[in-house]
From TrEMBL:
<protein>
    <recommendedName>
        <fullName>N(6)-L-threonylcarbamoyladenine synthase</fullName>
        <ecNumber>2.3.1.234</ecNumber>
    </recommendedName>
</protein>
<dbReference type="Pfam" id="PF00814">
    <property type="entry name" value="TsaD"/>
</dbReference>
<keyword id="KW-0479">Metal-binding</keyword>
<dbReference type="InterPro" id="IPR000905">
    <property type="entry name" value="Gcp-like_dom"/>
</dbReference>
<dbReference type="GO" id="GO:0005739">
    <property type="term" value="C:mitochondrion"/>
</dbReference>
<feature type="domain" description="Gcp-like">
    <location>
        <begin position="26"/>
        <end position="333"/>
    </location>
</feature>
<dbReference type="InterPro" id="IPR043129">
    <property type="entry name" value="ATPase_NBD"/>
</dbReference>
<comment type="similarity">
    <text>Belongs to the KAE1 / TsaD family.</text>
</comment>
<comment type="subunit">
    <text>Homodimer.</text>
</comment>
<keyword id="KW-0808">Transferase</keyword>
<dbReference type="InterPro" id="IPR017861">
    <property type="entry name" value="KAE1/TsaD"/>
</dbReference>
<dbReference type="GO" id="GO:0046872">
    <property type="term" value="F:metal ion binding"/>
</dbReference>
<keyword id="KW-0819">tRNA processing</keyword>
<dbReference type="InterPro" id="IPR022450">
    <property type="entry name" value="TsaD"/>
</dbReference>
<keyword id="KW-0496">Mitochondrion</keyword>
<keyword id="KW-0012">Acyltransferase</keyword>
<comment type="function">
    <text>Required for the formation of a threonylcarbamoyl group on adenosine at position 37 (t(6)A37) in mitochondrial tRNAs that read codons beginning with adenine. Probably involved in the transfer of the threonylcarbamoyl moiety of threonylcarbamoyl-AMP (TC-AMP) to the N6 group of A37. Involved in mitochondrial genome maintenance.</text>
</comment>
Amino acid sequence: LQNFTVLGIESSCDDTGAAVVRSDGTILGEALASQSHIHAPWGGVVPGLAKEAHEAEIDRIVQEALEAAGMTSAADVDAIGVTVGPGLEICLRVGATKARALAVEHEKPFVGVHHLEAHILMARLPYDSASKQLGFPFLALLVSGGHCQLLKCTGIGNMTVLGGTFDDSLGEAYDKTARLLGLPVGGGGGPVVERLAREGDPTAIPLSVPLQSRKDLDFSYSGLKSNVRRVAERLAKEGGVETPANLPHPIKANLAASFQHVAIQHVEQRLRRAMILLEEEEEEGIRSLALVGGVAANQVLRTRIEGLCKQRSWDLWIPPPRLCTDQGTMSAWAAIERIRVQSTDDPTIPDVYARYP
Ligand code: KG4
Ligand code: ZN
């Protein structure tokens, strides 16, 4: 198959992203508008404000990505892909409407991308032409703001959920911990908690690892969240400060580090179990792991999962940190993968899917 280029658009949550990617995996041009400064004062993503910001930025971001790729308009790409779900419906609609209009106007093949599949497929993007590509089947650990799942991936559009979360996702747990400690959130609390944790002792504050009695592949982070809150409130009371946000910096750092340590221990336990299961279950035995989603940008998580994979002789595939969180390249690359298996969509059907199994 000859090389072709795809314009990808992403607007499912609080990032307006666009990118032009070539089918061999080369990223030709990218543009991204983060809304963190808009949502920061509210302590989380406000859907109405997110939609307005997407509307304000979408044309500029798409044009910037095209120009960065040395193109002048969407007429210059071979196809167009856009996230159509899951996500915030009013936000999804902004990107989807733009992408569909361009596909119809320029008569380009169109792909409505599943956001979670797009995160997962980022592990298959050939990051340099010399390296080999992650092949099916593989195990995926998807850890983002909206999701926390283990999936068995056997092909494009063929992904089976082996385990999910009963309540919060790992990303949400980071975001809530950031809020509890009064750290600036908006673009997600993960990076700020990670930074603060570097200054703390991960064993300073004992917290319980979730779901010790359940020997399965599911996650739960709400118990850990309450555990951190209880301890932080007790420390605040003992220290004579009003809220955990007013605790002295070293104590906050210890809380962040201890939270992160146990949150990742939970991931390790679930992941190890899934690995053993797949090693035994499959005839050929799956031995490749894709670590994807926003939280996969976390350096401590990356290092610890790397250790686990080494231990069990598994191959590990992780996108570079900036491509773990939401951006346009993921939509373009997922569309490329779909086009390769002749799976495109009708751009005149206007639906988006807030929930998208
Ligand atoms: O994939 P993503 O950008 O959006 C969703 O599809 O949800 O993930 C966003 C989530 C947020 O919860 C954010 O706090 C978390 O990923 N995150 C991190 C880091 N970078 C982003 N969590 C921990 N450490 C990080 N470095
Ligand atoms: Zn995402």
